[in-house]
């Protein structure tokens, strides 16, 4: 008894024993491996699990393997029926064949044997198939990167010419291997060339012609699905003068893929009804574009010459895939593997990221410096650092400091404010205080606050400096008075700016008040007395208390004139002094008369 007859008897026995069950067991020779569905699978947008029965010859025991099929609904092309699945612990690709009837003929057995014996790195490996209607399908190796068309049309994937020539060479190698084994594709296009996880291009959907013979075509978008791929068919195939399974027809299909590789465009979506009916249609020869760092771009003349040879109207002039491989090798002398190219790209990308990180870090440091500068202008540096680190800024007592109060005194200031726009008043005060701020930067003083037209400065806080605080404040006050002689009010240039100032020395307490808008404030009788010195002073004069006068006399170098006894609110009688000048005036450039003119800024009414 022959081996096939024995297998047939085994199959009949299994069916007789399990006739009441829904499972189908098929025993076939060792050269074959088929998978029969047991149970129904929902194919329209759901995930379901079904048991597939791999059956080997000379074995009456079947092993159940769960295959999970996840269907993606997309009826544009026949590739929509290719689904990922899990078989025997690995991911596979399942292509559903829409057969109404299926018979396991000798021809199909021979085709399966031939396909299973094929083994090449540029062919998608055939694993098995399902023969139960209506779940007839072909199980092949799964390539996670998708089809070549998917990769080419994805603008987010940077594909240089090294990758493109590698894809073209991979297809040529795979097709050359098929032709060497007397097997021709007949359906070659960019959607059944798939990319694996190592960026190797592999050919799928080859062979098994009889297995697919009864596959009825899907109508999509108003035209026959197979018509979608007419642009890949050779003219002799469309005319019916030649079988579609010839080496020359495969070479013609390959020429269209070469155009897609060069242009990264979708020729299928661009075709019109006239194109579909024109059997002599050819896409335009591509303009080869390369990036600045892409050194693998081939010569346009060589690449286009290859395309023209492959789609030649004369079938005998078309090259073989072995000849195509040699032509591509000349165009790509570097022959760098896709993995090496990917590693190089990742290395370049890593260096690019490092450069970006370094640049952004430098920008961050510059912004931090700006933020620190702004913060330190609002609060003393030690206090600001404490607050930034989450520590409480404790109030501190200072045994001796000098406080300066100054207020703008303009004849008819209330009337001036009333006759000026708010913008003009703000612009005037901003220019004045900016001028003052530039001056006080030259002294060991700290500007406490500005309230309206009042200006408060202290020395000896927060940095203690012995008794020098009196001299620092005195020199600064003389410089501010000297500046006011030449300052011009932008919108009232004929109005004379006059200021009065008061200075007092004594103990103070300094600390931060508030959390929403923290302010560094001074507290103590010294602050009140300094304010009284300013309020009882006269225009363009600096009044100092006896305590400050004593410190200045100790320091020396200042001209003081006694004003006499003065009744100060809350203090009673006090002897005060006028600070006239610094004896070594020439050594302090800020005490020399300098003209400061403000620049008027246009404002709206």
From TrEMBL:
Membrane topology term: Single-pass type I membrane protein
Highest taxon in the source lineage: Eukaryota
CDD domains given in the database record: CHD
Subcellular location: Photoreceptor outer segment membrane
Gene Ontology BP term (one): receptor guanylyl cyclase signaling pathway
Keywords annotated in UniProt: cGMP biosynthesis, Glycoprotein, Lyase, Membrane, Nucleotide-binding, Receptor, Signal, Transmembrane, Transmembrane helix
Cellular component terms (Gene Ontology): plasma membrane
Domain Protein kinase: from-to ranges: 55-337
Major place of residence: membrane
GO molecular function, one term: guanylate cyclase activity
Domain Guanylate cyclase: 409-534
Catalytic activity: GTP = 3',5'-cyclic GMP + diphosphate
Documented EC number(s): 4.6.1.2
Family: Belongs to the adenylyl cyclase class-4/guanylyl cyclase family.
Name this protein carries in UniProt: Guanylate cyclase
Originating organism: Oncorhynchus mykiss
Organism lineage string: Eukaryota, Metazoa, Chordata, Craniata, Vertebrata
